[in-house]
Write a structure and sequence with these properties.
A hairpin with a 2-residue loop joins strand 4 and strand 5. Helix 12 runs antiparallel to helix 13. This protein has about 525 residues and is α+β, with helices and mostly antiparallel strands. The protein is globular, with a radius of gyration of 32 Å. The chain has two domains: about 260 residues, no CATH class; about 180 residues, Reverse transcriptase/Diguanylate cyclase domain (Alpha-Beta Plaits). It has a six-stranded antiparallel beta sheet. A five-stranded mixed beta sheet has the order 13-14-12-17-18, sandwiched between helices.
């Protein structure tokens, strides 16, 4: 019996059950381990992808901020460089007192750290550092870092120069992109890295003429110091935003490398990405711990986390798409959105008619000069809201730059309807605009109207026609609207000129060519 009991007792099955149990635990542990490793891998990939996408979005946003600052620098120069007075008192006859006054304006109003005036014979005529202006005549060769800028800007000037009675003029800046007549970028000046803008001194009313030869050039620079860093970081608000002239190798993390015109590195902007504070590891690790108790809870946790991550990425992409198509100040569509909608509307002609309204504020510069740029921003936002409310759902209102607005109106393009709309828009624009500290101001609105397909069907042509009508409204005294068909340009001069030089209005070209 002892042998029988030894062979067939329940001890052997008990050992088998223990073995299966151990195997089940091992398999369960292995399954948990494999699942945990898989989750760790998914978390690593998702975190890496999210980090890379966030960094790419931040770098794209910063490039846009830098480009906006460069354009702003050129726009600030236009007020003094594009002037008949400047041509007479700087180019034709160099007036040191006027040069000091010009430099003081750029420092006082816009805080341009460095301003240099370069003659057509490549002589530095005046230069300033902040509020100190030095009148000096020295060769440009003493500042070799500026020679390539002067060369390229001279080439742009020659392409835009036009012959007029008594000398030369320059194409209108109205429809020219800043890159067509100005230079912007980064350069070392006085051994310091700086953001610069440069443009030729040209007439604005064509009452003064330019001599033959290379242009006189006005160059302004903002040194890359704490004030400029604060200005550049005002919109993105990056953490630990810095600039370093020493470029580390390898360059890791979000950054923006800048170089001069010869592609020689100057320095790098760096910051800490927001992805560093959005890590998903603190959430995944507790979920992995829960996995040892219930694989089902873990599976739900993974799906939940991936869903949140996808939603976050989609929200980020939607925000970037919105920022790419809208003006950040007014909330209206920008030039890119306007061009897209205009192109799609043109394709639906003649079945679906529409009108293009080119709007420009009157007396807006006086608001900036009197109350400051913050008040100017308030006026832009208020007028944008009024235009959007006036147009309603029947059209698209876009801000294409400065105090210019464009409207694509699709509801009813009959002249009576458009007149009623323009009357409403002009009246709403003339209402007082409340400002800070209980102050208020008022501006006007001039409108140019081009109807499609009556006036044209090509998108670029319609923009040009509405601009010509706007110019006619301005010439008639502002705070009014004009149909292109009622302007002198509609008699045929605009069509002939439009096929040749699309950047100048017919009246401007007529004056430029005598």
């Amino acid at each position: 019996m002892s042998e029988f009991r030894r062979r067939y007792s329940d001890k052997a099955p008990k050992l088998a059950r223990q073995h299966i149990s151990r195997l089940a635990f091992v398999l369960a542990g292995l399954l948990i381990a494999v699942t945990s490793v898989s989750l760790l891998f998914v978390g690593f990939v998702a975190t890496r992808a999210s980090t890379q996408q966030t960094i790419a979005n931040e770098e794209r946003l910063f490039r846009s901020v830098v480009a906006d600052q460069q354009i702003t620098l050129v726009r600030e120069q236009i007020g003094v460089a594009s002037s008949d007075v400047s041509v007479n008192r700087l180019v034709k006859t160099f007036d040191p007192a006027f040069a000091r006054e010009t430099f003081d304006t750029l420092w006082t109003n816009y805080r341009h750290d460095k301003v240099i005036l370069i003659s057509g014979s490549r002589q530095v005529m005046a230069e300033s550092f902040q509020d100190y202006t030095h009148i000096v005549t020295r060769p440009l060769a003493e500042t070799p870092e500026l020679e390539s800028i002067v060369d390229e800007l001279t080439t742009k000037y020659m392409l835009n120069r036009v012959r007029v009675p008594g000398g030369f003029g320059h194409r209108s800046l109205q429809d020219l992109d800043a890159s067509a007549f100005a230079m912007t970028g980064f350069v070392r000046i006085d051994g310091k890295p700086a953001l610069y803008g440069a443009m030729p001194v040209i007439p604005d009313r064509y009452e003064a003429t330019l001599p033959d030869g290379a242009p006189m050039i006005l160059l302004s620079a903002l040194f890359i110091d704490d004030p400029l860093l604060k200005k550049l970081n005002a919109q993105p608000a990056f953490r630990s935003f810095t600039f370093a002239e020493t470029i580390p190798s390898p360059l890791e993390g979000p950054s923006h490398l800048i170089s001069d015109l010869s592609q020689s590195p100057i320095g790098v902007f760096r910051w800490k990405s927001e992805s560093a504070t959005a890590s998903i590891w603190p959430t995944i690790i507790p979920v992995i711990a829960i996995l040892s108790v219930a694989l089902g809870v873990l599976a739900f946790g993974i799906a939940w986390r991936i869903g949140r991550l996808t939603t976050s990425l989609q929200a980020s992409e939607q925000q970037n798409r919105y920022l790419a198509l809208h003006d950040t100040l007014s909330g209206l569509g920008n030039r890119l959105l306007f061009n897209r909608v205009l192109a799609s509307s043109a394709k639906e002609l003649p079945d679906k008619r529409f009108a293009v309204l080119h709007c420009d504020l009157d007396r807006f510069k006086a608001v900036n000069d009197t109350f400051g740029h913050a008040a100017g921003d308030t006026v832009i936002k208020t007028i944008a809201e009024r235009l959007k409310a006036g147009v309603g759902r029947q059209g698209l209102v876009c801000r294409i730059g400065g105090d210019e607005f464009m409207i694509i109106y699709r509801n009813d393009t009959a002249r009576a309807q458009l007149k009623a709309l323009c009357d409403t828009l002009i009246a709403s624009a003339q209402e007082p605009v409340p400002l800070a500290e209980g102050k208020q101001t008022a501006v006007g609105l001039s409108i140019g109207i081009a109807r499609a397909p009556e006036d044209g069907s090509d998108p670029e042509e319609l923009v040009g026609l509405s601009d010509a009508a706007l110019y006619h409204s301005k010439a008639l005294g502002r705070c009014r609207f004009s149909f292109f068909a009622e302007t002198p340009a509609a008699e045929g001069a605009w069509t002939a000129e439009f096929t040749g030089d699309q950047t100048a209005r017919p009246e401007e070209k007529k004056k430029a060519h005598g």
